[in-house]
Amino acid sequence: MITASKFKSWSKAIAQPAREFDSTPLSIIAGEIPADLRGTLYRNGPARLSRGGQKVGHWFDGDGAVLGIHFTDSGATGIYRYVQTQGYLDEQEADAFIYPNYGMTATGAFWNNWFKPVKNAANTSVLALSDRLLALWEGGKPHALDLETLATLGIDQLAGFADKQSFSAHPKVDPITGEIFNYGMSAGLNATLNLYCCDSSGKLKQQNSLTLSGVPLIHDFCLAGEYLVFLVSPVRINLTQVLLGQKSYSEAMEWKPNLATEILIFERNNLSLVSRSQTDPWFQWHFANGYLNEEGNIVTEFIRYANFDTNQYLKEVASGYTQTPAKGTLWSLTIDPKTAAVISNQQLSDAASEFAVVSPQKVGQPWRYTYLNVHRYGATIGEELFNAIACFDRQTKNMAIADMGSNCYPSEPILVPSKNNPEQGWLLTVVYDGNNDRSEVRIYQSDCLFETPVCRLALPFVIPHSFHGTWKQHQD
């Protein structure tokens, strides 16, 4: 039995389903809003982890809710809304979880897992287009939201896409062309990897596909100059167990290091496979970025785990108590694109880290600064969530850390580039303060993380720990 004293402060943020709120002026706790910060911060994450006395099976199962923080000349306002997916509405009416999900099987007879679709939780990330915001999820179409009110407009069919094609949660937007690259998986005895290139409005321009070996778990990919890079870790899903209702997707995932990690390189202009190879086994959820170096080789940066224990840790998060020490660290991988052969593969930092991002103006290009979540000094890995944000300087190999203080937990940091420097500017994060059981927005100067934030804004209610976000600049 877990005693109350063992629960860390972060667990209070997810103990109850999140409360929505309408557009609300945000009061300043300290500092002032930078005069040049004009736009909207959007964040998405699982906000409801229980219903009708039942808890979800995995953190990934939680119903998605989107936070919007609008910065204008009049100040900052916040709004928070659940994405009104069909699954959310049906389960709200039933006051029970009824759909299969990442870590849950369907209620009732086992054949419900055949006939009930996996619930689109719309809880992973967001993509801001000119006329709508897309709430993204791994295994289906995105949901379109109003950019201002966050009202759910419905499932976005994405012009040119087939009905059952999924649009994954980590699209890459080329900062020069505005093109959107993404992929989706189609399950079967052997999964199909579907690749997409869309214009800036989300309209499909080009697509291609590749049949994979078995059914792997692919969460992210990398845009690197002329190429798209996939690292397929040796995790395979036993679909028979899922279809028979014996296990959820998460429970049916098997770590098979003998399969190694597969490297897939695609040409961005036509989405064709250029090369493939195998290398050491590891698991990764996220890339930071990639580019082509002077020798024409691909350089990627990602968070690497020794195995798949991270999935167990993330399952435990939903319970409010974690004990699995799944440590991910920042690595750099250099690849010959013509052969997919590994030239070098090295750890850049030993700090436990995740949610690595770069400036949106440097996606697919050479960059210097990687922003990420880390643990503050003395934190017990496996028991705590990330409680600091950091900037890793690829040139000096130094890491600057903004310590949030004890029992404070920041989200993935989002950079708003300055007009004079595309890699530095304002770094925004949503923080849960476990000491006072409240949430706030903190704004840092990205090159002065050791200093106090330039502004802290109070949010009306607690915002549960979220996954990913984005910034949409207001047009001058």
Could you describe the 3D structure shown?
With 476 residues, the protein is mostly beta strands. The protein has one domain (20-473): YVTN repeat-like/Quinoprotein amine dehydrogenase (Methylamine Dehydrogenase, Chain H, 7 Propeller), CATH 2.130.10.10. Helices cover 6% and strands 41% of the residues. The protein has 4 helices and 35 strands. The protein has helices at 86-94, 112-115, 239-243, 309-317; strands at 21-25, 28-31, 39-48, 50-51, 54-55, 63-72, 75-82, 125-128, 133-136, 143-145, 152-155, 172-173, 180-186, 192-198, 204-211, 222-224, 227-232, 235-237, 253-255, 261-267, 273-279, 287-292, 298-305, 328-336, 341-347, 353-357, 369-374, 388-393, 399-403, 408-410, 414-417, 425-433, 438-445, 455-458, 468-473. The strands form 9 sheets. Strands 2, 30, 31, 32, 33 and 34 form a 6-stranded antiparallel sheet that branches. Strands 1-7-6-3-35 form a 5-stranded antiparallel sheet, with no helix packed on it. A hairpin with a 7-residue loop joins strand 31 (414-417) and strand 32. The chain is globular, with a radius of gyration of 21 Å.
In short:
This protein has 476 residues and is mainly beta.
How many strand elements?
Answer: 35
Shape assignment: globular
Sheet with the most strands?
A: 6 strands, antiparallel
**Share in helix:** under 10%
Structural class: mainly beta
What CATH architecture do you see?
Answer: 7 Propeller
CATH class: Mainly Beta
Question: What is the terminal-to-terminal distance?
Answer: 57 Å
- Low-confidence residue ranges: none
Q: Report the sheet-strand fraction.
A: 35-45%
Q: How many independent structural domains?
A: 1
Corresponding CATH superfamily: YVTN repeat-like/Quinoprotein amine dehydrogenase
**Mean of all residue-level pLDDT scores:** 95
Number of helices: 4
CATH topology: Methylamine Dehydrogenase, Chain H
